[in-house]
Amino acid sequence: MSRTTNRRSTLNSVRRRQSVLVSSDDAFTYALRTAYLHYLLQPRVRRPVPAPAPVPQVHRTSTSGSFHDLLKDFSHTSSNRDSKNTRFPKDYIPVLQKRIEKVWMGRETHVEYKDDKVKRAFASFYTHLAERRFNETVSKSRRPEELVIIFYSSATKELQKERPGQDPAEWRPLVDRHVALFVRLMSSTLKDNGWSSSHPELSTRLSTLEKKLLRNDGNLADDAQPSSSGTVLGPPEPLSYDVNDMPMVQQVSRVFNVPLDICQEEIDAKKAVWTEKAALLDMKSYNNNLNLHLRGALQTNDFETDEGYETWKRQETPELSKVILAIIQSNPAELSKATAQPPARRPGHTHSVSTYSVSGSSSRLSMGSAPTLRMVADQDMENQSDDDDGDTSYVYIPPDPRIYFRHVIDRCLIYDRGDPELPLMDVPSAKGPVRLFSKASLALLDECCLRWRVPKFTRMVLILDCIRVKYEQDDAELVDIDGTFEYFNQEVGCDYQYWTVQDFDLFRTILSHVHGAVLRELYEMLMFAFEMKAVPIGRAMRVLEDHIFPHPLFQYQEPVEYLEHLETGLRSKAEEVLLGFLQELPTEREDLDPLIVVQLAQKVIKRAEKISKRFAKPILNKVDPMMIFVEVAFPRFAIEAREIVLEIIKVYQEKGQDLDVEDAIELYKELSEIRRIFNECYSDRRFPVRFEDFLAEYVSKWLATVDGKVIGWVDGAIKQDDFRLKIRETEGREPEDNERHTSSSVDIFKALNQPVDFLKRLEWQDEFQNAKFFTGLAKILEKGISRYCDVLEKLFTFEMDKPTAEQELQATQTRQQRWISLAREAWSTEHKIEPFQFAPECCVKLNNIEFAIQQFDKLERTVDSDAIASVINKYTPPNQHRGRASYVFTVKIIEAEDLKAMDMSGYSDPYVVLGDEYQKRLAKTRIVYRNLNPRWEESFDIITQGTVWLTATVWDWDTVGDHDCLGRTNIKLDPSAFMDFLPKELWLDLDIQGRLLVRISMEGERDDVQFHFGKAFRNLKRTERDMTRQITDKLSAYIHHCLSKQALKNVISKSQGGLSSVTSLFQRTSLQTRPQSMAVAISEADIAAAITPLTDYFNENFAILNQTLTSTAMTLVMSKLWKEVLVTLEQLMVPTLSDKPSQQRPLTRQETEIVFRWLQLMFDFFHAVDETTGQATGVPMDVLKSPKYHDLQSLNFFYFDSSESLIRESERMAAVAARRFQQSQQAPLPPHPPQNHLAPHPPGNFLSVGGGSFIKRSKSVLNKRNMGTMRQRKEDKRREAQAEPSDDMILRILRMRPEAAGYLKERSRQKERLEAAAAAQAIVNQSVNAGSGRMGPRR
Q: How many Cα atoms within 13 Å fall on the side-chain side of residue 984?
């Protein structure tokens, strides 16, 4: 058996044997005598009495040495104690400083501080204490010795000043008295501020030092003279021995429920035995037993380790010394004599222990010196050296102090907890008030511990055990357990290895019992976890997590059965709560309403949220009430809710009504929230109910409602908009770019974003249904955008076509006056062109379209059309994508050539009207003024269900009279001819004269989100383009005028001067070349001057536009004008592309140089580089250097080559193009990409009639579904134009060479053959790809 086991078995047997003998009366007896001893040892009151007659001064020869000896003993005692308990509190110095200030200012109430010499001494010390450095030093060290030394020095210097010639031996006793008064003031400051209880050792030391300093001057006389008040403190008052003067005895009477008269009788009977001397002898005997390892004090076997015993003994020895010293100092004269006598046996005790006596000579305990524990112990050891087992009885220490002390604790708890007015204990670390002991009970327990020598850790363990027992008996609550643990942790450190074996084992037992009891109470609390007002478990968890689990003495074992039992109980309670919710439903089916289900679902969710807030983490890290509630209640509620909703729908149908859409959607929101919470908690489980199965139809109805409102939203927003920028008027400043749109564009997108946000927030869980909903919503959005574009463009066109003042004047003229004006205009050679006054309202509408493009792009990103299309593709079989009920044909009217001149000026003002076979107008182009080879480049979408015939009629616009027809042609839109989804360019001969070039492409009209977004974007961009074109059309007439052949002639004629007649001669003789000697160099100034009117005209119009247009819109207008400049210069040099010879004659070298110089000048003008900063502020460089610009530049290389050379170069390029085409046909088919089946299949290569390059399907709706795809398509187009050289320009030059007519026809047939082959291959590729999509990839 181990040593520790032997210790525990021995101690347990002794404890069991002694505990049987202890009764409440025994505990009362020892508590009473201890309280009585506290009364005996209390300082007695000394009242002021008249000052006695002067007595001769007793001179001391070595007072200074005596003071320093006392201070040395004071400091030595401090070094043997805990430094924290012997230092003054942190806030002590400021309080003491105020007390000192009251002394030297004469405001101190005590008589002894009224003397003038005392005030001067304190004033001198106050000066030192007020110094910042000294104040900081003593505040940091907190050592009382430093204050006493400095005060002693200050008092000595002050008396030296008063008595400079007097012998120091005569006034040094007065210094001791002043220092004693200072020490008394320090003690009083500690006591008055409640610090004496937390610093008992410091209080005792200061009291001892004061008594030593005053041992020769008990009356505090000033140099043996009467004080200024004529009174001094008299002798201590005698004891009354009346229990009414004994507060602690009264507390014992209350605690043990014993009347005071019985206590008085007991004290009177034992007065002769219960003396201070008996207490002193008890301590001496205890000290003897401690030193000799005898019974009557703790021994080595009482501790777990020898180190623990030695540690306790080192702490106990100085504490015991202080107690003995305090007893002796209570009555030094009598007790000093008593210590010289050998101990004698005292009657009245039932137990004996080894004697405890004090040794030492009586001469060492004389009245002239204060006794110390060391002196007493030496004397006692001399008297008892031959008696190791002396039979000395304790008077105040009970037989088993531990058990007796536990009785006292229990009685104090019973009494104090029965008092409803008990003041709360102040435990700083406790989370709430601690209701344990009153101040009187704490004082009684402190006194018992002090006199019975109960270690502090034993005291705290016993208090904790008593509270534990009461908690198990339901006489205490969790807050008491928690507060007691906090009190325990505050008073006792964590040096458990230095405890006694009994305390160690008892504390382990306490932890185990408290753990079990708290778990039982926790279970009862958690049974209310799902109620509206649950029982808080914070205190229970705090006890477990802060006091039980982390404690090193607690041996934790996971309570598996407890956790299973707790989970079972919580599941049962969750079912009860859900049943209570369901009982709120009406019993009659006619009373059922979706709102009731919504409210019920909200209650379930709120209850879950409340539970989640209550339990931030699982109980014991294992059981999560929130998870249990969700697992049990949510699926069952969902099942019940489904049945209720289906029943509600059935009831509505029986009434011939339909469930309100808003109610159904609100119902889905709440039910889906329940499912979301469940899925978050149990992601690996499947929720038992799909709410989408019976609520999807109501979302479709909601979409139908939105569809019916969208046109009204758009019309209402436009109606409320006056299209005016009011910032200039209201704020007096120029608007920024982001402020140049008006309210309609903002209001429309606010309205369009609402259904998108609503559908997003709905979080529909069936992704296929959700994708279909967003597809339908995309169609609605496209409908609203198209409406906005149509209305805005009509308003824009109306405002742009408003007649000017001159036109209004012409409208009032008679028919004859109109003809005269037209004749004059026709014969006039000068045209005065004024800048067009663009209305701000027109420009704002273009800004609105630009803003709409940006906002719709954000809307498309919010919807994420690509992700929705991929979901549709994942769930829809491939064969369902093939059927297309309707088709979208895009007809682009590009240009016309060789039109008939209908005006007297030799020109026409052509425009094109598209109509169907029923003569219904479908589309109309703009008017191109004074041109027989006009370019429109306008596109129109035509939706058909099958084959349709279109009629394209070219009209000449006339100001007066009916418009003249320039020719008609028919266009067949046959879906079967465009199943390759490739664009086709067609030259259509007009029935009167000339021909018309159109480009036709087709794609299926599908219910596809990408298609709808693409269509809306195309409408926006087309509206933007058409508005921009209408602006540029107002300026294009002057461009054609300034960059015409007549302008070329004017430049040359100005330079040649007198040679004009010779030039006319050459022209009449139809000579193709002029003599080189006649060529005259044309100056740069003349060339620039020819287009200066054009640039000035541009600048005037740009200044007007820049006031309203945004920078982006302004750049767009300038880009369109630049393109118009390029087209105009191109028409000067070459005819349009065709397989027939042209009547246009080529320019001379001189004219060509002028054209290219104009090109460079216009390039620099539109680039607009700032001369100071060097920064370009006009059209971007990549726009300026467009493919058409490069084509125009390429004319410089081929324009004057011979026809044979041009034909060879064209054949070379054709061969390269044919070889590239053959290689593309022989290459293996790429794997079918995993994309949306509704998206168009990649087109095959197509060699157009217009040239040798392959035309891709650039105008596909899906290529314009957002800004990103549109920018990417533009970049791809630019790269293709640069990577694939074309012989178009060569063929256009050859049209002006009659000898190349045969080659043009042959080249046209070659292209037609390649076109047919490309179309056939495209159809094959499409079929193969479609087959791969249905059957999987080919192996």
A: 22
- Residues 406-457 pLDDT 10s: 999 999 999 988 887 777 666 666 666 667 888 899 999 999 999 999 999 9
Report how far residue 452's alpha carbon sits from residue 409's, in angstroms, rounded to the nearest whole number. Answer: 14
Length of the chain: 1339
Q: Is the pLDDT of residue 510 over 90?
A: yes
- Residue carrying structure tokens 């021909």: 995
Instruction: Provide the strand spans (E) within 8-144.
Output: 48-50
Model pTM score: 0.61
Give the C-alpha distances (Å, rounded to integers) separating 407 from 30, 31, 180, 412, 414.
11, 10, 42, 9, 11
- Max Cα-Cα span within the chain: 167
Q: How many CB atoms lie within 10 A of CB 1308?
A: 15
Asked whether the beta carbons of 672 and 605 are under 8 A apart, the reply is no
Other C-beta atoms within 10 Å of 1319: how many?
A: 20
Distances (CA, A) of 729 to 106, 214, 737, 744, 1247: 80, 96, 17, 19, 57
C-alpha atoms less than 13 angstroms from C-alpha of 1219 in its C-beta half-sphere = 7
- Torsion, Cα 247 248 253 255, to 10 degrees, reads 120
Q: β-strand 995-1005 against 391-392: which pairing, if any?
A: unpaired
DSSP structure class, residue 987: E
Contact 1334, 881 (CB under 8 A): no
For the stretch 1104-1129, pLDDT in tens is: 888 889 988 888 888 988 988 998 88
| pLDDT > 90 in the chain, percent | 23
Neighbours of 279 (CB within 10 A): 26
What amino acid is encoded at 630 in this protein?
V
Q: How many CB atoms lie within 10 A of CB 1?
A: 6
Contact 283, 66 (CB under 8 A): no
- 825-834 long-range contacts, Cβ below 8 Å, gap at least 24? 825/905, 826/903, 826/904, 826/905, 831/1041, 833/1037, 833/1038, 833/1041, 833/1093, 833/1097
Long-range contact pairs involving 536-539 (C-beta distance under 8 Å, separation at least 24): 537/619, 539/431, 539/478, 539/479, 539/482
Give backbone dihedrals phi and psi of 600, rounded to 5 degrees, phi first: -65, -40
Q: Which of 799, 1033, 795, 802 is nearest to 937 (CA)?
A: 1033
CA distance 452 to 394: 10
By C-alpha distance, which of 330, 327, 399 is closest to 29?
399
Contact assessment for residue 359 and residue 377, using Cβ atoms and an 8 Å cutoff: yes
Structure tokens at 1283: 């990577």
Q: Write phi, then psi, for 216 (nearest 5 degrees).
A: -105, 5
Structure tokens at 247: 């507060």
Among 478-492, 509-523, 758-772, 1222-1236, the least confident range: 1222-1236
Helix spans in 527-624 (H): 538-542, 560-582, 594-614
Does residue 559 contact residue 519 with C-beta atoms inside 8 Å?
Answer: yes
pLDDT for res 403: 93
* Angular region, 642: left φ>0, alpha ψ -120 to 50, beta rest: alpha
Cα–Cα nearest to 1027, from 1269, 850, 892 = 850
Nearest to 380 by CA among 451, 289, 309: 289
1023/957 Cα distance (integer angstroms): 23
Q: Give DSSP secondary structure letters for 216-242.
A: T-TT--BTTB--TTSEEE-PPPPP---
Retrieve residue 427's tokens. 């435990």
Q: Looking at residue 915, what DSSP letter applies?
A: E
Distance of CA 1299 to the CA centre of its chain: 78
Q: How far apart are the first and last CA of the chain?
A: 84
